[in-house]
Design goal:
Strand order of the largest sheet: 1-2-3-4-5-6-7-8
Number of domains: 2
Order of helices and strands: EHHEHEHEHEHEHEHEHHHHH
Strand content: 5-15%
Largest sheet: 8 strands, parallel, barrel
CATH superfamily of the largest domain: Aldolase class I
Number of helices: 13
Radius of gyration: 19 Å
Helix content: 40-55%
Length: about 325
């Protein structure tokens, strides 16, 4: 597949998506202060970020509101408290997990919402349900995406089948999601080419959401960009589950669009992110995440290893090998 532009060219189709609250919320159970959220919102606007994902639309029937911060649920009033009518050029996103969102109850008409896009998260075995949810949201007036998680574990034939189903839907975007941080740029290229071929034929857009288990989140994002992926997910200081994500500050400095400005992001890191780390929130590359990523395993065991403050990497690796 011919690449679109090169790494020093400006591509107007490229959009940056901030996922700090949604993926970073998995670090602290979404317990961000309103001050933090407001400051991030304003920082992203100044930095030229195109979309800001506020969190999940999780069902209150399935998740206890006392156990999580408000951005696990992204109620309309809570978003409005931060953005008002969002009279800016930045769009507001939320994520809706298949089977974990009461979407017919909690997703209102776009005309009455500050949210612009619903990102539907799914595994390959729930693609039909994801399409149904995305079609519902599209009919309500939203932009929509389908984010296929754990793609590193997928069979090529299953990916082809999923893309065929999605191609016949009204969904606007489809995402390559390296949930386990297990893929390298060459693999990202091969998978993304499949997505792009379908997307180009059906006027859809392709995105990339990378995890940093093997310190390849940025490299994988840039490789996807090189061959034509347009929607680029990133988080401030890489904040996200386990090893975290592609770093926003890296991406903003790399992209050639003059609208992007890293200075507000750096200011936000100084004022808000460093204090999270000082207060004990933990994310980012570490050996245990490297090991699960290299074995293409879910990082849950590495997350437990981190919470237990273990350092017995050799034993951990041998235990992983027994499970592999």
């Amino acid at each position: 597949m011919k690449q679109k532009g090169n790494l020093v060219s400006f591509r107007p189709d490229v959009k940056v998506v901030d996922v700090t609250i949604r993926d970073g919320g998995l670090v602290n159970d979404f317990r961000f202060s309103d001050e933090f959220i407001k400051a991030l919102y304003e920082s992203n606007i100044k930095a030229g970020v195109d979309y800001m994902e506020f969190g999940y639309k999780a069902s209150t029937e399935l998740f206890n509101e006392d156990e999580y911060g408000k951005w696990k649920f992204c109620k309309e009033d809570d978003i409005r408290k931060i953005v008002g009518d969002n009279d800016t050029g930045m769009k507001i996103a939320v994520m809706a997990d298949v089977g974990r969102t009461d979407y017919k109850k909690d997703i209102i008409d776009k005309a009455d919402s500050a949210i612009d896009i619903i990102r539907v998260a799914t595994y390959l075995n729930t693609i039909p349900a994801a399409v149904e949810m995305a079609e519902y949201c599209k009919a309500k007036g939203y932009e929509t995406s389908i984010n296929i998680m754990a793609i590193s574990n997928a069979k090529e034939s299953d990916i082809d089948d999923a893309l065929d189903v999605i191609s016949r839907s009204s969904v606007d975007m489809i995402y390559v999601v390296d949930s386990y941080g297990a893929l390298v740029p060459e693999q990202i290229r091969g998978i993304a080419e499949k997505y792009i071929e379908m997307a180009d034929a059906t006027s859809k857009t392709v995105g990339i959401h990378a995890h940093n288990n093997m310190q390849l989140a940025f490299a994988n994002t840039i490789e996807a960009l090189r061959i034509g992926v347009s929607m680029l997910d990133a988080s401030i200081y890489g904040m996200g589950r386990g090893a975290g994500n592609c770093c926003m500050e890296l991406l903003l400095r790399f992209l050639k669009n003059p609208k992007y400005n890293v200075l507000p992001t750096l200011d936000f890191i100084e004022k808000y992110i460093l204090s999270l780390i000082e207060n004990g929130d933990v994310w980012g590359y570490d050996i245990q995440y490297l090991l699960t990523g290299s074995l293409n395993q879910h990082p849950r065991t590495a997350i437990s290893f981190t919470k237990d403050k273990r350092k017995d990497y050799k034993k951990f690796f041998l235990d992983l090998l027994d499970k592999d």
